[in-house]
Design goal:
The chain has 545 residues and is an alpha/beta fold. It has four domains: 94 residues, no CATH class; 134 residues, ATPase, nucleotide binding domain (Nucleotidyltransferase, domain 5), CATH 3.30.420.40; 141 residues, Nucleotidyltransferase, domain 5; 115 residues, no CATH class. It contains 17 helices and 22 strands. Helix 12 crosses helix 13 and helix 13 packs parallel to helix 14. The chain is globular and about 65 Å long. It starts with a helix and ends with a helix. This is Sugar (Pentulose or hexulose) kinase. Pfam families: FGGY_C (PF02782), FGGY_N (PF00370). It comes from Georgenia satyanarayanai.
C-alpha cells in the first residue's frame, strides 16, 4: 500500500526542503519501523525528531489458523520490504535523492506473544500473537507462583502452557523472543530486547533493569527437567534500556529490508521495543503520574507509577517504560475493529445509495452524529469482542449489540454505544487503578479514532472522568516513537529519556485537551453499569454459538 502522504507529495524545493535533502544525503536522520496489528509503518525524521521527512506503510492482517492468531514470517518480511520501499519512494518524490543510509534506526512491534526457535534458528511453531487466549492454566499457575499478575499473552505464559500441554517442540527450544526482537535479531545478529518489550516476556526488576532474579529462580524450580536448559533465562533475549547501543545493520539485514541493495550497512540500532513503549514515547508519557491510551485493534492504557501497587490484580499488568520505570498497564484484546466494521457497513450503504464516501468521511460523519446521542447511549449496549477478553473473563469473542424494548434506537445512540464499547473493558481496569489511589496528572490519547476532533477524545474523558489530551506529534504513532528512540541514541549520554523528550522533542508541542463533561461522566457510568451486567449475555453467546 502506498501511504496517503506519499501519493500526492510534490518535490519540496523550499529552503526547508534543501535542508531536509541534505539531511537525507548525509544520513543525519533516524528511521523508525513499527509492525502494528493491521499496518506496518516506516517513519523517517530529521536532525530535529519532530520533523517527519517521509513515511511509508503496508497493510497486513493476522490469520486465524489452527485456532491460533498468527502472522507468517514470510508476511513479516514481505510487509517490511513493502513499507521500506514505500518510504524510499516517498524520499525520492519529496527530495529527488535516493535513500542510501540513515543515522540510526529502530524496530517496534506488537508486544508479547511467542516466537520459539531451535538451535538452527528455525521457527518451531507458528508465531502466537498477543491475541491468543489459550494459556489460562499456565498464566494462573505462574501468577500464584510469582505473586504478580502474569497475563495470558505474556511469552512466559505461552512457554509454560506449551510445557503443560507436552508440546513436542519444547525440548528443541533454544531461543524465545517477541516480534520486535525477532526482526531486530535478523537485522543485526543480536538477540536483545528493549526493557519495555522484555517486561511482556517475564517480570522486570526495576532495581536492576533486567528480568527479576528471584522470580526466575522460582520458574527454574517449577520447570526443572522440563526445559532443554537449566535456567529459563538462557532462552530469553538480553535486556537493554533506552539509549543503549543494540547493534548495527548487517549486510544480511540490509538485504532483508531493502532487496534492491541501495541501503548501506553499519547503521546503529536502538533496542527494539513494543508498541506500548513507543506509544508512551509518542505521547511523552514516560514520567511518573503520566499516562496514555492507545486505540487500535487492541486498546490499552499505560500509567507510570510513583510507587508499587498493593496486591495482585488480574486487570493490571506490571510492565515498564523504555527506560525501565514501572508502569501499570490495562490491556484489552479488543479495540476499534468492531467500530471499523460498522463504519464499513455504513460506507457500503452510502455507496449503494449513490453517494460514496471515503473511509475517513464515513468515520467523521458517524462520530459527529454520536455527539447528538444521549449521554447513556439511550440504553443501547455494544460489545466489541472479536477475540477473547481476559479482563472480562471471556475466552472467546462474540460481538454483540444489545438493547431493551424501551431503549432508544437512533443512529446517534447506536454510534455512541459503539464508541463507549471500545472503552468499556478499559474503563473497568482503570477503575481498579483509581481504587489503588494511582494519581494521573495527564492522560494522552493516540490512534485513528481520535483523528476526528472532539468526539472519541471527549467520550474517553467522560469514561475515565479525567482530562484527555491529543498531541499533534502522535499522528505518526509508534513508528514515530521508535524513530525518536533511535534519535535518542546520540543524546543518551547527556540526559535521561524523560528529559530528552521534554527538552528536545516536546518543548514546543501543542496539545488539545478535553475536560470531562459532567453529563458524559454520569451517562457513561450508567452505560458501564449495564455493560457489566450484560457480560453474562456475551458469555451465553460464546456457549451457544
Amino acid at each position: 500500500m502506498t501511504s496517503s502522504g506519499a501519493v500526492s507529495t510534490p518535490r519540496d524545493t523550499t529552503t526547508a526542503g534543501d535542508a531536509h535533502r541534505e539531511a537525507v544525503l548525509s544520513g543525519r536522520t533516524s528511521l523508525g519501523i513499527e509492525l502494528g496489528s493491521t499496518r506496518i509503518k516506516a517513519c523517517l525524521v530529521g536532525p530535529d525528531p519532530t520533523q517527519v521527512l517521509a513515511v511509508g506503510s503496508h497493510e497486513w492482517e493476522n490469520e486465524f489458523s489452527g485456532r491460533t492468531w498468527t502472522y507468517s514470517l514470510e508476511s513479516v518480511w514481505s510487509g517490511l520490504q513493502a513499507a521500506y520501499a514505500d518510504l524510499a519512494a516517498d524520499v525520492e518524490r519529496r527530495y529527488g535523492v535516493p535513500l542510501t543510509t540513515v543515522g540510526a534506526m529502530g524496530v517496534s512491534a506488537m508486544m508479547h506473544g511467542y516466537l520459539a526457535f531451535d538451535g538452527d534458528d528455525e521457527l518451531l511453531v507458528p508465531f502466537r500473537t498477543w491475541r491468543n487466549t489459550t494459556t489460562g492454566p499456565a498464566a494462573a499457575e505462574l501468577s500464584e507462583l510469582l505473586g504478580v499478575n502474569i497475563p495470558l499473552r505474556w511469552s512466559v505464559a505461552h512457554l509454560h502452557q506449551a510445557v503443560l500441554d507436552g508440546e513436542e517442540h519444547v525440548p528443541r527450544i533454544r531461543f524465545l523472543t517477541t516480534l520486535a526482537g525477532y526482526v531486530h535479531w535478523r537485522l543485526t545478529g543480536r538477540r536483545v530486547l528493549g526493557v519495555g518489550d522484555a517486561s511482556g516476556m517475564f517480570p522486570i526488576d526495576p532495581a536492576t533493569g533486567t528480568y527479576d532474579a528471584g522470580m526466575l529462580a522460582k520458574l527454574d524450580t517449577l520447570l526443572a527437567g522440563r526445559l532443554p536448559v537449566a535456567h529459563a533465562v538462557d532462552l530469553l533475549p538480553e535486556v537493554l534500556s533506552a539509549g543503549a547501543q543494540a547493534g548495527e545493520l548487517t549486510a544480511e539485514g540490509a538485504a532483508l529490508l531493502d532487496p534492491s541493495g541501495t541501503l548501506q550497512v553499519g547503521v546503529p540500532l536502538c533496542p527494539p521495543e513494543g508498541d506500548a513503549g513507543t506509544g508512551m514515547v509518542a505521547t511523552n508519557a514516560v514520567a511518573p503520574r503520566t499516562g496514555n491510551v492507545s486505540a487500535g485493534t487492541s486498546i490499552f492504557a499505560m500509567v507510570v507509577l510513583e510507587q508499587p501497587l498493593e496486591g495482585m490484580h488480574h486487570e493490571i499488568d506490571l510492565v515498564t517504560t523504555p527506560a525501565g520505570d514501572p508502569v501499570a498497564m490495562v490491556h484489552c484484546n479488543n479495540g476499534a475493529s468492531e467500530l471499523g466494521a460498522w463504519a464499513g457497513l455504513f460506507g457500503r450503504f452510502a455507496e449503494a445509495a449513490g453517494t460514496p464516501l471515503s473511509g475517513d468521511a464515513v468515520f467523521a460523519t458517524l462520530l459527529s452524529e454520536a455527539l447528538d446521542g444521549e449521554a447513556d447511549a439511550g440504553g443501547l449496549l455494544a460489545y466489541n469482542y472479536l477475540a477473547g477478553e481476559p479482563i472480562s473473563g471471556l475466552g472467546e469473542g462474540r460481538p454483540l449489540v444489545l438493547r431493551t424494548p424501551d431503549s432508544r434506537l437512533t443512529l446517534a445512540n447506536f454510534v455512541r454505544a459503539q464508541v463507549y464499547g471500545v472503552f468499556g473493558t478499559l474503563s473497568m481496569g482503570m477503575q481498579v487503578l483509581a481504587g489503588q489511589g494511582v494519581a494521573i496528572d495527564r492522560m494522552l490519547a493516540h490512534g485513528g479514532m481520535f483523528r476526528t476532533a472532539g468526539v472519541a477524545q471527549r467520550f474517553l474523558a467522560g469514561a475515565l472522568d479525567a482530562p484527555v489530551a491529543v498531541g499533534e506529534t502522535a499522528s505518526e504513532g509508534g513508528a514515530w516513537g521508535i524513530a525518536v528512540l533511535a534519535a535518542y541514541l546520540s543524546a543518551a549520554d547527556g540526559t535521561d529519556l524523560s528529559g530528552y523528550l521534554d527538552e528536545q522533542v516536546f518543548a514546543g508541542a501543542s496539545f488539545d485537551t478535553a475536560q470531562p463533561d459532567p453529563q458524559d461522566v454520569a451517562g457513561y457510568a450508567a452505560f458501564l453499569e449495564r455493560y457489566r451486567a450484560g457480560l453474562a449475555a456475551v458469555g451465553a453467546a460464546v456457549e451457544a454459538l
